[in-house]
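User: Protein folding is very new to me. Would you mind checking the protein record under this note? It all follows right here:
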Amino acid sequence: MLGLRYYQRIRNCSKQWSKFRLFKFGSSCGNKYFWTAKRFHGNSNSQSLCIPEQPLEFCELRNGMKVVCEYKSSDVTTVGFFVPAGSMHEKCKERGASLFMEHLIFRETRCRDQLQIEQALEEIGGKLGALAMHDMFLFWGTVPSCDIEKLFNLLGDIINNGIIVNDEVDKERFTILHELQEIDMDGERIVMDYLKNIAYQDTELSKSVYPETCAIKCLSAETISSFRDRFFKFNLMTIVCTGGTSLATVNKCAEAYIICCDEDSAPSPDSRETQDHVPLPLSYRFSAIDMRHRDDDEKLAHVALAVETPGFGQINDQYALTVAKDIVGSWDVTCGGGDNNAQSVAHYAFNYNLCHVYKSFNIAWANTGLWGCYFACDRMLLQDTLWVIQNEWFRLCTSITEKEVQRAVNQCKTRELAKLNSSIDRFFDIAVSLFRQGRYEQISQRLYKYDEIKANAIRDIASKYIYDQCPAVAAFGPVENLPDYTRIRSSMYRLRY
């Protein structure tokens, strides 16, 4: 069962965490349990940093819902839920259901209308948010820690009594269609969406969060409600709380406002397994393919190319690939620095006016990922820009220096530390790590792993996943000057000996 499998990996991770000591405590939730971990300490350059991160505590409620809590001294608390209900879980007739859920989940319940929900939120000064992704759906609320019980009251009503009304669907239909029009004017979003679609064609991962316009126009409230009922079940949902609220308080509020008070109404584990329609395992198959949409009316050509990476299933490789991505870096015409840019591609882009923007990316899911680069340039500079980028990829495999690696490592460490500043960022970090990686690595352990990455590791990982690999290419705009796929593929390797 996909909904429980990633949590089972959390339970089993005590055998794999050689650097952690795990302790088991008694619980006020019957036969449930709490897991907590001591802070990781390693011999790294980051050991002298004072990292304000507390160990996570885990438990499971009697209705099958999982709870993850990070308690620290804070006046603000973020409580959220993540569910395996992304666009890749949609059936053909449900295309766009997760996107509609993002807009409608806080709209109306059987006990409250939209005005009452907004008034309840304004009384405590809270904020609500939701996000539909390819593989998961997240929704959360942020309030002062003293009002956490009122937030649970509101979220419990939304989970247990939320409804989808035809009038609200019709209103949001126009909003979503307007978003699609804005996306059509953004070349980067168009080409990146095409890239994911063609790289994993005929698999669930090719389903974009933003479906075709005809699907948006035809989707009904009954279909959205069916999608919600199929996935928004207790045993498929996980609560993530971060901020100034303890695990005991979270359990108390969840028991009071989310779980039915009647013990007899709580389904047994066996009945949940037989009655719930859990999502089936998803298939991933990377396709090395070329897709071009020529439109000479566009001013710039937008191109994205990527190779397949292992995703969070091989987390150590992901750390090295993230550093490699930062070595290539990003640049656009508004960046300062002129001729003193650290990245080699940015240096060429400024001195020779190669492109208007380029961005290296590393997109990772649970079992697969895409590592590559997006750029936008004039039609007559496509070949030169592509050659510079592929030449930089080749340099990652052969002649990257320790100084460049250290600069990229420092950037990665700064991003990790920045996640500690916001409770919402912490919620996203914990939720995505647990869902895609199956366990959570503390910031101190991540910094230690980044410090261990040297030039030899980058050369090895680039030779493994980039050198002589078949890329997926997506292009949009005046792309007649873009080399054909056989030329792009042949530039992925060179005679090095």
Q: What stands out?
A: Confidence is low (pLDDT under 50) at residues 1-44, 261-276.
